[in-house]
Amino acid sequence: MKRRSTLVALASLPAMAQPGRPLRIVVPYAPGGASDIATRLLAPELHKRLGQAVVVDNRPGADGNIGSAEVASASDGHTLLMGSVGTHVINPLLARRLPYDAVKDFAPVSLVATVPLVLVVNPAVAQRLGIRRLADLVLAAAAARPGRLHIASGGNGTATHLAGELFKRLSQTYLLHFPYRSTMSAQQDVIAGNMDLMFDHLPAALPQIRAGRLLPLAVTSARRSPSLPELPTVEEAGGALLRGYEASAWIGLFAPANLAAEPLARLQRDTVAALADPALRERMTARGLLVHGSGAAGLAALMAAETAKWSRVVQLSGVKVDR
């Protein structure tokens, strides 16, 4: 009778309050990227507040669609998604068929961080072409050598690709695009000199920049990054030609839409509280992330604004993907 009473009591608890049951956060990308970095930094803080283990589970594939679809259909009450502008804005704009609905299948928890991209060039290429700043790339290189400079990305339709498309459209330059299967693969080929340049996620690019393997020209955010305060924004460095340029990626925590109201509300409160912790914010900033804790409403509003923005870029650039 006592055991039965205990089982009944456990069954009545909110899903995320069941003792001994770890919370799993699915990262729909490979380890080492911005989403993975942010999740692994946030997980210990959520553990402190929720009182249960938090496991980070990388499920890469199909530009984030595989991991996102898994969480969308999860019903165990202990599975979350660290989504992104890719999974919740760009993929729905580009894919003919998605295995999930970015709005109906998820409940926003909170925006976690925005992720500036950084325009980086292979140092040997930069030296050979006399590229020391963004103006050199636009005026002396890209405009004078249309199609001769090769720009890599993490794949067709990714944030690293669309940032380049927006740059090309505003600067009126032509860079030959080469999509890779992942951003890390693209970065490795820029470092090796097989590609000339790329828009990379700042958290992933920072160690290579500090080691001198990549030359940064500008960040894509509206403001300079605290991680590289001496580096101008694309808008600053590009002047009138690139006025209004902004192409930051972002990372947000989502729950499946079927999560009960009580554990969802608690998760939202605890996530916002965790992101307000000064030590966590300092660790994230040091890795190139701009920390937010805007809650569910802020994340939902950002999704709507970003959908309107990137749908225009997709339309004008004619970007297409095979998925």
UniProtKB/TrEMBL annotation:
Question: Which family does the UniProt entry place this protein in?
Answer: Belongs to the UPF0065 (bug) family.
Task: From the Swiss-Prot or TrEMBL record, give the protein name.
Answer: Tripartite tricarboxylate transporter substrate-binding protein
Q: Which domain of life is it from?
A: Bacteria
**Tagged with keyword Magnesium:** no
The organism encoding this protein is Pelomonas parva
Q: Which InterPro entries does the record cross-reference, listed alphabetically?
A: BUG, Bug_dom1
Transmembrane intervals: none
UniProt entry keywords in alphabetical sequence: Signal
Span of the secretion signal?
A: 1-17
